[in-house]
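call fold target=Arabinofuranosidase catalytic domain-containing protein
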Amino acid sequence: MHIQSPPLHRRGLAAVVGLIALVLALIVAPLAGPAPAEAATDGPCDIYASAGTPCVAAYSPARALYASYNGPLYQVKRASDGATRNIGVLGAGGYADAAAQDAFCAGTSCVIPVLYDQSANHNDLTPAPAGEQGAANAPADAAALPITVGGAKAYGLYLPPGVAYRRSSKVTVGTARGASPESMYEVASGTNVNSACCSDFGNVETDTVDTGAGHMDTLNLSTLGAVGATGHGPWVQADLEEGVFQGKTFVWTPNQGNASKFVTAVLKNNGVDTFALKGGNSQSGGLSTWYNGALPDGTDRFGSTWKPMKLEGSIGLGAGGDNSNRGTQSFFEGVMTSGYATDAAENAVQANIVAQHYDGVSTGGGPGRQIVGPGGKCVDVSGDDTGGNLAVVQLWDCKTLAADQRWTGSGFGDGTLNTLGRCLDVDGNVTTLGTGVELYDCNGVPGQQWIPQADGSIKNPASGLCLDAPNGNTANGTPLRIWTCNGAPAQKFQVTTPILHPVAGAAAKCVDVAGNDLNVNNQRVQLWSCQNVVTGAPGGNAEARDQQWTYVPGDQSVRTIGRCLDVIDNVTTMGAGVQLHDCNGVGGQHWVPQANGAILNPASGYCLDAPNGATADGTALRIWDCNGAPAQTFTLN
Protein backbone atom coordinates (compact mmCIF):
# COMPACT_ATOMS: atom_id res chain seq x y z
CA MET A 1 0.00 0.00 0.00
CA HIS A 2 1.33 3.43 -0.92
CA ILE A 3 1.43 5.85 1.98
CA GLN A 4 1.32 9.46 0.85
CA SER A 5 3.31 11.96 2.88
CA PRO A 6 1.38 14.91 4.32
CA PRO A 7 1.37 17.99 2.04
CA LEU A 8 3.75 20.80 2.86
CA HIS A 9 2.27 23.64 4.89
CA ARG A 10 1.99 26.68 2.60
CA ARG A 11 3.12 30.08 3.74
CA GLY A 12 3.19 33.49 2.15
CA LEU A 13 6.17 34.73 0.19
CA ALA A 14 7.40 36.83 3.08
CA ALA A 15 7.51 33.79 5.36
CA VAL A 16 9.46 31.77 2.78
CA VAL A 17 11.96 34.57 2.31
CA GLY A 18 12.31 34.82 6.09
CA LEU A 19 13.01 31.10 6.39
CA ILE A 20 15.69 31.24 3.68
CA ALA A 21 17.32 34.19 5.41
CA LEU A 22 17.29 32.30 8.70
CA VAL A 23 18.95 29.24 7.17
CA LEU A 24 21.68 31.35 5.56
CA ALA A 25 22.27 33.17 8.84
CA LEU A 26 22.61 29.91 10.71
CA ILE A 27 25.08 28.52 8.19
CA VAL A 28 27.25 31.64 8.44
CA ALA A 29 26.93 31.98 12.25
CA PRO A 30 29.69 29.47 13.19
CA LEU A 31 32.23 31.62 11.32
CA ALA A 32 31.51 34.66 13.47
CA GLY A 33 32.88 33.29 16.74
CA PRO A 34 31.13 32.24 19.96
CA ALA A 35 27.48 33.19 20.22
CA PRO A 36 26.01 35.04 23.17
CA ALA A 37 23.82 33.13 25.63
CA GLU A 38 20.75 33.53 23.45
CA ALA A 39 18.84 31.05 21.34
CA ALA A 40 18.36 31.27 17.58
CA THR A 41 15.14 32.93 16.36
CA ASP A 42 13.64 29.61 15.26
CA GLY A 43 14.30 26.25 16.84
CA PRO A 44 14.52 22.83 15.19
CA CYS A 45 10.82 22.18 15.70
CA ASP A 46 9.92 25.49 14.04
CA ILE A 47 12.05 24.46 11.05
CA TYR A 48 10.44 21.03 10.81
CA ALA A 49 6.94 22.52 11.12
CA SER A 50 7.66 24.97 8.30
CA ALA A 51 8.58 22.01 6.11
CA GLY A 52 5.35 20.13 6.87
CA THR A 53 6.84 17.56 9.27
CA PRO A 54 6.02 18.92 12.75
CA CYS A 55 7.60 17.60 15.91
CA VAL A 56 5.46 15.13 17.85
CA ALA A 57 8.00 14.87 20.69
CA ALA A 58 10.93 17.15 21.53
CA TYR A 59 13.42 16.77 24.37
CA SER A 60 16.47 18.64 25.60
CA PRO A 61 17.88 19.29 29.07
CA ALA A 62 19.95 22.11 27.54
CA ARG A 63 17.64 24.38 25.54
CA ALA A 64 14.23 25.14 24.08
CA LEU A 65 13.60 23.54 20.69
CA TYR A 66 10.84 25.99 19.72
CA ALA A 67 11.32 29.75 19.54
CA SER A 68 8.23 30.23 21.69
CA TYR A 69 8.83 27.50 24.27
CA ASN A 70 8.91 28.84 27.82
CA GLY A 71 8.08 25.75 29.88
CA PRO A 72 10.05 23.16 31.88
CA LEU A 73 12.83 21.13 30.29
CA TYR A 74 13.20 18.52 33.04
CA GLN A 75 12.54 17.88 36.70
CA VAL A 76 15.17 17.31 39.39
CA LYS A 77 14.64 15.36 42.61
CA ARG A 78 16.80 16.02 45.63
CA ALA A 79 18.33 13.08 47.52
CA SER A 80 18.33 14.83 50.90
CA ASP A 81 14.57 15.27 51.25
CA GLY A 82 12.93 13.94 48.07
CA ALA A 83 11.79 17.41 47.03
CA THR A 84 11.38 18.13 43.31
CA ARG A 85 11.74 21.20 41.12
CA ASN A 86 11.16 21.82 37.43
CA ILE A 87 14.09 23.35 35.55
CA GLY A 88 13.01 25.60 32.74
CA VAL A 89 14.57 28.08 30.35
CA LEU A 90 15.99 31.52 31.05
CA GLY A 91 13.51 32.99 28.59
CA ALA A 92 11.23 31.90 25.74
CA GLY A 93 13.24 29.95 23.19
CA GLY A 94 16.33 30.13 25.39
CA TYR A 95 18.77 27.96 27.30
CA ALA A 96 18.33 25.97 30.51
CA ASP A 97 18.38 27.69 33.88
CA ALA A 98 21.29 25.62 35.19
CA ALA A 99 21.76 28.01 38.11
CA ALA A 100 18.33 27.01 39.43
CA GLN A 101 19.41 23.36 39.45
CA ASP A 102 22.72 24.17 41.12
CA ALA A 103 21.01 26.16 43.88
CA PHE A 104 18.30 23.54 44.48
CA CYS A 105 20.78 20.62 44.57
CA ALA A 106 23.52 22.38 46.58
CA GLY A 107 24.90 20.19 49.35
CA THR A 108 23.25 17.02 48.09
CA SER A 109 22.71 15.12 44.84
CA CYS A 110 19.81 15.21 42.39
CA VAL A 111 18.40 12.86 39.78
CA ILE A 112 16.11 13.55 36.81
CA PRO A 113 12.76 11.74 37.22
CA VAL A 114 11.06 13.54 34.30
CA LEU A 115 12.31 14.73 30.90
CA TYR A 116 9.58 16.99 29.55
CA ASP A 117 8.28 16.94 25.98
CA GLN A 118 8.33 20.47 24.60
CA SER A 119 5.71 19.69 21.95
CA ALA A 120 2.01 20.26 22.57
CA ASN A 121 1.61 16.46 22.88
CA HIS A 122 3.20 16.33 26.37
CA ASN A 123 4.89 12.99 25.70
CA ASP A 124 6.97 13.31 28.86
CA LEU A 125 9.57 10.61 29.62
CA THR A 126 10.09 8.90 32.98
CA PRO A 127 12.51 6.07 34.00
CA ALA A 128 11.86 2.96 31.92
CA PRO A 129 10.28 -0.04 33.64
CA ALA A 130 11.70 -3.56 33.68
CA GLY A 131 11.44 -5.51 30.46
CA GLU A 132 12.30 -8.72 28.71
CA GLN A 133 16.05 -7.99 28.70
CA GLY A 134 16.68 -5.70 31.68
CA ALA A 135 15.68 -4.64 35.15
CA ALA A 136 13.85 -1.38 35.88
CA ASN A 137 15.97 1.66 35.08
CA ALA A 138 17.23 4.40 37.37
CA PRO A 139 16.86 8.12 36.66
CA ALA A 140 19.92 10.01 35.42
CA ASP A 141 22.30 11.86 37.73
CA ALA A 142 21.34 15.49 37.17
CA ALA A 143 24.89 16.84 37.55
CA ALA A 144 26.83 14.14 35.71
CA LEU A 145 27.24 15.93 32.38
CA PRO A 146 27.93 19.68 32.61
CA ILE A 147 28.27 21.43 29.25
CA THR A 148 27.96 24.87 27.74
CA VAL A 149 25.51 25.78 24.99
CA GLY A 150 25.42 29.25 23.50
CA GLY A 151 28.05 30.19 26.09
CA ALA A 152 25.66 29.35 28.94
CA LYS A 153 26.10 26.56 31.46
CA ALA A 154 23.73 23.62 31.04
CA TYR A 155 23.63 19.89 31.67
CA GLY A 156 23.38 16.96 29.28
CA LEU A 157 21.67 13.68 30.12
CA TYR A 158 24.19 10.94 30.98
CA LEU A 159 22.72 7.49 30.25
CA PRO A 160 25.08 4.69 31.37
CA PRO A 161 23.88 1.08 31.49
CA GLY A 162 20.76 0.79 33.64
CA VAL A 163 19.64 4.40 33.12
CA ALA A 164 16.89 4.89 30.51
CA TYR A 165 13.53 6.59 29.92
CA ARG A 166 10.29 5.58 28.23
CA ARG A 167 6.69 6.50 27.50
CA SER A 168 4.21 3.82 26.49
CA SER A 169 2.15 4.12 23.33
CA LYS A 170 -0.88 3.62 25.56
CA VAL A 171 -0.47 7.30 26.44
CA THR A 172 1.71 8.81 23.70
CA VAL A 173 0.12 11.29 21.31
CA GLY A 174 1.02 11.83 17.65
CA THR A 175 3.76 9.22 17.22
CA ALA A 176 3.86 7.03 14.11
CA ARG A 177 2.00 3.73 14.15
CA GLY A 178 2.05 0.88 11.67
CA ALA A 179 3.60 1.94 8.36
CA SER A 180 3.28 5.70 8.93
CA PRO A 181 6.31 7.84 8.00
CA GLU A 182 8.42 9.57 10.66
CA SER A 183 11.74 11.36 11.09
CA MET A 184 14.01 12.03 14.05
CA TYR A 185 17.36 13.41 15.10
CA GLU A 186 19.42 13.51 18.27
CA VAL A 187 22.54 15.29 19.43
CA ALA A 188 24.64 12.79 21.39
CA SER A 189 28.30 12.24 22.23
CA GLY A 190 30.54 10.31 19.85
CA THR A 191 32.95 9.66 22.73
CA ASN A 192 30.54 8.04 25.23
CA VAL A 193 29.56 4.86 23.42
CA ASN A 194 30.04 1.12 23.76
CA SER A 195 29.25 -2.05 21.84
CA ALA A 196 26.48 -3.24 24.16
CA CYS A 197 22.78 -3.33 23.34
CA CYS A 198 21.15 -0.84 23.11
CA SER A 199 21.14 2.88 23.92
CA ASP A 200 18.46 3.96 21.43
CA PHE A 201 16.22 6.98 20.86
CA GLY A 202 12.95 6.76 19.01
CA ASN A 203 9.84 4.67 18.37
CA VAL A 204 9.66 1.43 20.39
CA GLU A 205 7.18 -1.27 21.39
CA THR A 206 4.10 -0.68 23.55
CA ASP A 207 5.40 -3.17 26.10
CA THR A 208 9.06 -3.84 26.89
CA VAL A 209 9.13 -7.02 24.79
CA ASP A 210 10.69 -7.79 21.40
CA THR A 211 7.73 -8.20 19.04
CA GLY A 212 9.76 -8.67 15.85
CA ALA A 213 11.27 -6.97 12.83
CA GLY A 214 9.91 -3.55 11.95
CA HIS A 215 8.34 -2.91 15.35
CA MET A 216 11.01 -0.32 16.23
CA ASP A 217 12.38 2.72 14.44
CA THR A 218 15.14 4.25 16.56
CA LEU A 219 18.51 5.95 16.30
CA ASN A 220 21.53 4.16 17.70
CA LEU A 221 24.97 5.79 17.95
CA SER A 222 27.41 3.07 19.04
CA THR A 223 29.94 0.45 18.00
CA LEU A 224 27.33 -2.30 18.36
CA GLY A 225 27.42 -4.89 15.60
CA ALA A 226 30.28 -3.16 13.85
CA VAL A 227 32.44 -6.16 12.92
CA GLY A 228 33.55 -5.46 9.36
CA ALA A 229 32.48 -1.80 9.47
CA THR A 230 34.63 0.86 7.87
CA GLY A 231 35.76 4.32 8.94
CA HIS A 232 35.95 5.24 12.60
CA GLY A 233 33.08 4.44 14.97
CA PRO A 234 30.71 5.01 16.49
CA TRP A 235 28.28 4.65 13.63
CA VAL A 236 24.90 6.29 13.17
CA GLN A 237 22.63 3.28 12.90
CA ALA A 238 18.92 2.38 12.88
CA ASP A 239 17.63 -0.12 15.41
CA LEU A 240 14.63 -1.51 13.54
CA GLU A 241 14.18 -4.42 16.01
CA GLU A 242 15.80 -7.76 15.30
CA GLY A 243 18.72 -5.84 13.91
CA VAL A 244 20.81 -2.67 14.20
CA PHE A 245 21.48 -1.48 10.66
CA GLN A 246 24.16 0.83 9.23
CA GLY A 247 22.26 0.72 5.95
CA LYS A 248 20.22 -1.91 4.17
CA THR A 249 22.40 -4.49 5.90
CA PHE A 250 23.82 -4.68 9.42
CA VAL A 251 27.18 -3.39 8.17
CA TRP A 252 27.09 -0.87 5.32
CA THR A 253 30.64 0.00 4.30
CA PRO A 254 29.82 3.49 2.90
CA ASN A 255 28.79 4.42 6.47
CA GLN A 256 32.06 5.88 7.78
CA GLY A 257 31.04 6.73 11.33
CA ASN A 258 30.95 9.87 13.47
CA ALA A 259 33.40 10.17 16.37
CA SER A 260 33.21 13.88 17.27
CA LYS A 261 32.49 15.05 20.82
CA PHE A 262 28.99 16.03 19.74
CA VAL A 263 27.27 14.12 16.93
CA THR A 264 24.06 15.01 15.10
CA ALA A 265 22.43 11.69 14.17
CA VAL A 266 19.46 11.66 11.78
CA LEU A 267 17.01 8.89 10.80
CA LYS A 268 13.91 9.03 8.62
CA ASN A 269 11.68 6.15 7.55
CA ASN A 270 8.74 6.27 5.13
CA GLY A 271 7.31 3.17 6.81
CA VAL A 272 6.87 1.24 3.60
CA ASP A 273 10.12 0.59 1.77
CA THR A 274 12.70 3.36 2.37
CA PHE A 275 14.82 4.84 5.15
CA ALA A 276 17.83 7.13 5.42
CA LEU A 277 20.66 7.75 7.91
CA LYS A 278 22.79 10.88 8.25
CA GLY A 279 25.48 12.08 10.64
CA GLY A 280 27.44 15.22 11.31
CA ASN A 281 29.59 17.10 13.78
CA SER A 282 27.25 19.15 15.96
CA GLN A 283 29.97 21.79 16.42
CA SER A 284 30.74 22.48 12.75
CA GLY A 285 29.89 21.60 9.18
CA GLY A 286 26.97 19.84 7.56
CA LEU A 287 25.46 16.38 7.44
CA SER A 288 26.80 13.34 5.59
CA THR A 289 24.25 10.93 4.12
CA TRP A 290 25.39 7.48 5.13
CA TYR A 291 22.46 5.60 3.62
CA ASN A 292 19.34 6.41 1.60
CA GLY A 293 17.55 3.44 0.16
CA ALA A 294 15.49 0.34 0.75
CA LEU A 295 14.54 -1.07 4.11
CA PRO A 296 16.23 -4.41 4.95
CA ASP A 297 15.13 -7.51 3.07
CA GLY A 298 14.30 -10.90 4.50
CA THR A 299 12.55 -12.13 7.62
CA ASP A 300 13.57 -12.41 11.24
CA ARG A 301 13.37 -15.34 13.67
CA PHE A 302 9.66 -14.62 14.18
CA GLY A 303 8.97 -14.69 10.45
CA SER A 304 8.41 -10.92 10.53
CA THR A 305 9.71 -8.48 7.87
CA TRP A 306 10.93 -4.88 7.87
CA LYS A 307 8.86 -4.00 4.80
CA PRO A 308 6.41 -2.54 5.72
CA MET A 309 7.13 -1.24 9.22
CA LYS A 310 4.83 -2.18 12.10
CA LEU A 311 5.45 0.70 14.51
CA GLU A 312 3.78 0.66 17.91
CA GLY A 313 4.33 4.31 18.89
CA SER A 314 6.04 4.21 22.29
CA ILE A 315 9.04 6.47 22.88
CA GLY A 316 12.32 5.17 24.32
CA LEU A 317 15.59 6.85 25.28
CA GLY A 318 18.63 4.95 26.55
CA ALA A 319 17.49 1.33 26.05
CA GLY A 320 16.14 -1.02 23.40
CA GLY A 321 12.49 -1.81 22.86
CA ASP A 322 12.77 -4.93 25.04
CA ASN A 323 14.65 -2.86 27.67
CA SER A 324 18.07 -4.14 26.65
CA ASN A 325 19.80 -1.48 28.75
CA ARG A 326 23.52 -2.21 28.64
CA GLY A 327 24.39 0.51 26.13
CA THR A 328 25.60 4.00 27.04
CA GLN A 329 25.21 7.48 25.61
CA SER A 330 25.23 11.18 26.43
CA PHE A 331 22.07 12.90 25.16
CA PHE A 332 21.73 16.65 24.63
CA GLU A 333 18.64 17.06 22.47
CA GLY A 334 16.39 15.11 20.12
CA VAL A 335 13.02 15.18 18.40
CA MET A 336 10.59 12.89 16.61
CA THR A 337 8.36 14.21 13.81
CA SER A 338 5.42 13.07 11.74
CA GLY A 339 6.14 12.56 8.05
CA TYR A 340 9.28 12.05 5.99
CA ALA A 341 11.44 15.16 6.45
CA THR A 342 13.04 16.97 3.54
CA ASP A 343 16.80 17.21 3.15
CA ALA A 344 16.47 21.00 3.26
CA ALA A 345 14.77 20.86 6.66
CA GLU A 346 17.43 18.52 8.03
CA ASN A 347 20.23 20.75 6.73
CA ALA A 348 18.60 23.77 8.36
CA VAL A 349 18.28 21.88 11.66
CA GLN A 350 21.97 20.98 11.51
CA ALA A 351 22.86 24.63 10.91
CA ASN A 352 20.70 25.57 13.89
CA ILE A 353 22.49 23.04 16.09
CA VAL A 354 25.95 24.22 15.02
CA ALA A 355 24.92 27.79 15.86
CA GLN A 356 24.37 26.75 19.50
CA HIS A 357 28.11 26.21 20.08
CA TYR A 358 27.82 23.07 22.18
CA ASP A 359 31.00 22.53 24.17
CA GLY A 360 32.38 20.41 26.98
CA VAL A 361 31.90 16.70 27.56
CA SER A 362 31.71 14.36 30.52
CA THR A 363 32.90 15.25 34.00
CA GLY A 364 32.09 14.46 37.63
CA GLY A 365 29.78 11.46 37.67
CA GLY A 366 29.98 11.18 33.90
CA PRO A 367 31.50 8.30 31.96
CA GLY A 368 34.80 7.01 33.25
CA ARG A 369 37.41 8.24 35.69
CA GLN A 370 40.67 10.09 35.58
CA ILE A 371 43.85 8.14 36.36
CA VAL A 372 46.37 10.53 37.91
CA GLY A 373 49.99 9.50 37.52
CA PRO A 374 53.46 10.93 38.21
CA GLY A 375 53.63 14.67 38.73
CA GLY A 376 49.86 14.90 39.16
CA LYS A 377 49.45 14.44 35.41
CA CYS A 378 46.61 12.40 33.91
CA VAL A 379 46.80 9.32 31.70
CA ASP A 380 45.77 10.84 28.37
CA VAL A 381 45.53 9.97 24.67
CA SER A 382 47.45 12.07 22.16
CA GLY A 383 45.19 14.29 20.09
CA ASP A 384 42.05 16.06 21.24
CA ASP A 385 39.55 13.35 22.15
CA THR A 386 40.01 11.74 18.73
CA GLY A 387 41.25 8.37 19.94
CA GLY A 388 42.19 6.56 16.74
CA ASN A 389 44.04 3.24 16.63
CA LEU A 390 47.74 3.52 17.55
CA ALA A 391 47.28 6.88 19.30
CA VAL A 392 50.03 7.19 21.93
CA VAL A 393 48.96 7.05 25.58
CA GLN A 394 50.82 9.69 27.55
CA LEU A 395 50.84 12.03 30.56
CA TRP A 396 49.14 15.42 30.27
CA ASP A 397 47.73 18.12 32.51
CA CYS A 398 44.39 16.94 33.92
CA LYS A 399 41.46 18.60 32.15
CA THR A 400 37.97 18.53 33.62
CA LEU A 401 36.23 18.13 30.27
CA ALA A 402 38.73 15.86 28.48
CA ALA A 403 36.89 12.73 27.35
CA ASP A 404 40.18 10.94 26.57
CA GLN A 405 41.24 11.25 30.21
CA ARG A 406 38.19 9.32 31.41
CA TRP A 407 38.88 5.60 31.63
CA THR A 408 36.55 2.73 32.39
CA GLY A 409 36.83 -0.99 32.82
CA SER A 410 34.82 -2.92 30.28
CA GLY A 411 32.31 -4.12 32.90
CA PHE A 412 32.89 -7.76 31.90
CA GLY A 413 35.73 -8.61 34.25
CA ASP A 414 38.42 -8.93 31.58
CA GLY A 415 40.82 -6.40 33.10
CA THR A 416 40.79 -3.85 30.28
CA LEU A 417 41.00 -0.08 30.59
CA ASN A 418 39.30 1.84 27.81
CA THR A 419 38.40 5.30 26.63
CA LEU A 420 36.78 6.68 23.46
CA GLY A 421 35.64 3.15 22.63
CA ARG A 422 39.16 1.65 22.50
CA CYS A 423 41.51 -0.13 24.93
CA LEU A 424 44.84 0.65 26.59
CA ASP A 425 47.15 -1.64 24.63
CA VAL A 426 50.83 -2.67 24.66
CA ASP A 427 52.23 -1.85 21.23
CA GLY A 428 52.42 -5.03 19.15
CA ASN A 429 51.14 -7.16 22.07
CA VAL A 430 54.74 -7.91 23.03
CA THR A 431 56.27 -8.43 26.47
CA THR A 432 59.53 -6.58 25.91
CA LEU A 433 60.82 -4.24 28.61
CA GLY A 434 60.30 -0.61 27.54
CA THR A 435 57.52 -1.22 25.00
CA GLY A 436 55.21 1.77 24.61
CA VAL A 437 51.46 1.76 25.15
CA GLU A 438 48.74 3.02 22.83
CA LEU A 439 45.01 3.02 22.20
CA TYR A 440 43.68 0.23 20.04
CA ASP A 441 40.45 -1.62 19.21
CA CYS A 442 39.54 -3.88 22.12
CA ASN A 443 40.35 -7.45 21.05
CA GLY A 444 41.07 -9.33 24.28
CA VAL A 445 44.79 -9.90 23.69
CA PRO A 446 47.10 -10.16 26.74
CA GLY A 447 48.58 -6.74 25.97
CA GLN A 448 45.22 -5.21 26.90
CA GLN A 449 45.01 -6.72 30.38
CA TRP A 450 45.76 -4.47 33.39
CA ILE A 451 45.54 -5.17 37.11
CA PRO A 452 45.84 -2.35 39.69
CA GLN A 453 48.24 -3.26 42.50
CA ALA A 454 48.09 -2.37 46.19
CA ASP A 455 51.11 -0.04 45.88
CA GLY A 456 49.41 2.10 43.20
CA SER A 457 51.05 0.52 40.18
CA ILE A 458 49.13 -0.93 37.22
CA LYS A 459 50.49 -4.28 36.08
CA ASN A 460 50.26 -6.04 32.74
CA PRO A 461 50.22 -9.70 33.82
CA ALA A 462 51.28 -11.12 30.45
CA SER A 463 54.62 -9.34 30.62
CA GLY A 464 54.88 -9.05 34.40
CA LEU A 465 55.72 -5.37 33.83
CA CYS A 466 54.07 -2.20 35.09
CA LEU A 467 52.82 1.00 33.47
CA ASP A 468 55.67 3.50 33.75
CA ALA A 469 56.68 7.09 32.94
CA PRO A 470 60.22 6.78 31.48
CA ASN A 471 62.89 7.97 33.95
CA GLY A 472 60.20 9.60 36.07
CA ASN A 473 59.53 12.25 33.41
CA THR A 474 56.33 14.23 34.08
CA ALA A 475 56.28 16.69 31.16
CA ASN A 476 53.16 16.98 29.05
CA GLY A 477 53.34 14.47 26.23
CA THR A 478 55.51 11.94 28.08
CA PRO A 479 54.65 8.61 26.39
CA LEU A 480 53.98 5.78 28.83
CA ARG A 481 55.56 2.32 28.57
CA ILE A 482 55.81 -1.00 30.42
CA TRP A 483 58.81 -1.44 32.74
CA THR A 484 60.06 -3.57 35.61
CA CYS A 485 57.70 -3.13 38.57
CA ASN A 486 59.77 -1.26 41.16
CA GLY A 487 57.35 0.81 43.27
CA ALA A 488 58.94 4.08 42.14
CA PRO A 489 56.89 7.30 41.85
CA ALA A 490 57.03 6.88 38.07
CA GLN A 491 54.70 3.91 38.51
CA LYS A 492 52.19 5.41 40.95
CA PHE A 493 48.72 5.92 39.47
CA GLN A 494 45.66 6.95 41.43
CA VAL A 495 42.04 6.72 40.41
CA THR A 496 40.27 9.88 41.57
CA THR A 497 36.76 9.68 40.17
CA PRO A 498 33.99 7.05 40.13
CA ILE A 499 34.95 3.40 39.68
CA LEU A 500 31.99 1.54 38.24
CA HIS A 501 32.86 -1.82 39.74
CA PRO A 502 31.97 -3.52 43.02
CA VAL A 503 34.06 -3.62 46.17
CA ALA A 504 34.43 -7.37 46.56
CA GLY A 505 34.57 -8.96 50.01
CA ALA A 506 34.95 -12.46 51.41
CA ALA A 507 33.70 -15.41 49.36
CA ALA A 508 33.35 -13.20 46.28
CA LYS A 509 30.46 -11.33 47.87
CA CYS A 510 30.02 -7.63 47.23
CA VAL A 511 29.56 -4.70 49.56
CA ASP A 512 25.90 -3.86 49.11
CA VAL A 513 23.20 -1.61 50.56
CA ALA A 514 20.12 -3.24 52.10
CA GLY A 515 17.09 -2.94 49.83
CA ASN A 516 17.06 -2.70 46.05
CA ASP A 517 19.03 0.43 45.13
CA LEU A 518 17.17 2.45 47.78
CA ASN A 519 18.51 5.98 47.80
CA VAL A 520 17.62 6.75 51.44
CA ASN A 521 19.51 7.33 54.69
CA ASN A 522 20.26 4.70 57.35
CA GLN A 523 20.16 1.63 55.10
CA ARG A 524 22.53 -1.01 56.50
CA VAL A 525 25.64 -1.90 54.49
CA GLN A 526 26.08 -5.64 54.08
CA LEU A 527 27.51 -8.46 51.99
CA TRP A 528 25.45 -9.76 49.09
CA SER A 529 25.98 -11.81 45.96
CA CYS A 530 27.62 -9.67 43.28
CA GLN A 531 25.18 -8.46 40.63
CA ASN A 532 27.52 -7.10 37.97
CA VAL A 533 27.06 -7.57 34.24
CA VAL A 534 28.40 -11.01 33.33
CA THR A 535 27.71 -11.02 29.62
CA GLY A 536 27.17 -8.58 26.81
CA ALA A 537 24.53 -10.79 25.24
CA PRO A 538 20.80 -10.50 25.91
CA GLY A 539 20.00 -12.09 29.25
CA GLY A 540 23.05 -10.74 31.11
CA ASN A 541 22.40 -9.84 34.73
CA ALA A 542 21.83 -6.14 35.34
CA GLU A 543 24.27 -4.26 37.55
CA ALA A 544 23.17 -3.31 41.06
CA ARG A 545 23.75 0.43 41.42
CA ASP A 546 24.21 0.07 45.17
CA GLN A 547 27.19 -2.25 44.61
CA GLN A 548 29.02 0.35 42.52
CA TRP A 549 31.29 2.16 44.98
CA THR A 550 33.54 5.18 44.49
CA TYR A 551 36.58 6.02 46.62
CA VAL A 552 37.25 9.77 46.79
CA PRO A 553 40.76 10.35 48.17
CA GLY A 554 40.17 14.07 48.71
CA ASP A 555 37.74 13.52 51.59
CA GLN A 556 38.47 9.82 52.21
CA SER A 557 34.85 8.90 51.49
CA VAL A 558 33.45 5.71 49.98
CA ARG A 559 30.24 6.45 48.06
CA THR A 560 27.37 4.89 46.19
CA ILE A 561 24.03 6.22 44.85
CA GLY A 562 24.81 9.69 46.12
CA ARG A 563 25.56 8.84 49.76
CA CYS A 564 28.51 7.81 51.94
CA LEU A 565 29.61 4.70 53.81
CA ASP A 566 29.02 5.79 57.43
CA VAL A 567 29.62 4.39 60.93
CA ILE A 568 26.22 4.46 62.64
CA ASP A 569 25.89 7.48 64.96
CA ASN A 570 29.53 8.39 64.21
CA VAL A 571 30.74 6.36 67.19
CA THR A 572 34.21 4.87 67.64
CA THR A 573 33.13 1.74 69.52
CA MET A 574 34.40 -1.61 68.31
CA GLY A 575 31.54 -3.55 66.75
CA ALA A 576 29.57 -0.51 65.60
CA GLY A 577 27.60 -1.16 62.46
CA VAL A 578 27.88 0.72 59.18
CA GLN A 579 25.21 2.23 56.97
CA LEU A 580 24.63 4.56 54.03
CA HIS A 581 24.05 8.21 54.94
CA ASP A 582 24.21 11.70 53.49
CA CYS A 583 27.85 12.71 53.06
CA ASN A 584 28.71 15.18 55.85
CA GLY A 585 32.46 14.74 56.43
CA VAL A 586 32.24 13.33 59.96
CA GLY A 587 34.93 10.94 61.22
CA GLY A 588 32.65 7.97 60.70
CA GLN A 589 32.74 8.62 56.94
CA HIS A 590 36.54 8.61 56.54
CA TRP A 591 38.08 5.45 55.13
CA VAL A 592 41.64 4.65 54.04
CA PRO A 593 42.39 1.53 51.93
CA GLN A 594 45.35 -0.43 53.32
CA ALA A 595 47.99 -2.38 51.44
CA ASN A 596 46.65 -5.69 52.82
CA GLY A 597 43.16 -5.04 51.45
CA ALA A 598 41.66 -3.72 54.67
CA ILE A 599 39.64 -0.48 54.77
CA LEU A 600 40.54 1.55 57.87
CA ASN A 601 38.33 4.08 59.62
CA PRO A 602 40.98 6.44 61.09
CA ALA A 603 38.64 8.07 63.62
CA SER A 604 38.14 4.79 65.46
CA GLY A 605 41.28 2.95 64.43
CA TYR A 606 39.11 -0.01 63.38
CA CYS A 607 38.63 -1.72 60.01
CA LEU A 608 35.58 -2.66 57.97
CA ASP A 609 34.72 -6.26 58.94
CA ALA A 610 32.31 -9.11 58.26
CA PRO A 611 31.43 -10.47 61.74
CA ASN A 612 33.13 -13.78 62.50
CA GLY A 613 33.98 -14.20 58.83
CA ALA A 614 30.33 -14.69 57.86
CA THR A 615 29.69 -14.57 54.11
CA ALA A 616 25.95 -15.19 53.85
CA ASP A 617 23.82 -12.74 51.88
CA GLY A 618 22.64 -10.05 54.27
CA THR A 619 25.66 -10.19 56.60
CA ALA A 620 25.74 -6.71 58.15
CA LEU A 621 29.21 -5.17 58.16
CA ARG A 622 30.81 -3.42 61.16
CA ILE A 623 34.09 -1.89 62.37
CA TRP A 624 36.48 -4.18 64.29
CA ASP A 625 40.10 -4.59 65.36
CA CYS A 626 42.28 -4.58 62.24
CA ASN A 627 43.64 -8.13 62.03
CA GLY A 628 44.32 -8.88 58.37
CA ALA A 629 41.80 -11.72 58.30
CA PRO A 630 39.87 -12.59 55.11
CA ALA A 631 36.81 -11.01 56.72
CA GLN A 632 38.60 -7.65 56.39
CA THR A 633 39.99 -8.08 52.89
CA PHE A 634 38.24 -5.99 50.25
CA THR A 635 39.41 -5.55 46.68
CA LEU A 636 38.64 -2.20 45.11
CA ASN A 637 38.52 -3.12 41.43
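return ok
Helices lie at 13-28, 44-50, 98-104, 343-354. Confidence is low (pLDDT under 50) at residues 1-40, 362-366, 497-506, 532-543.
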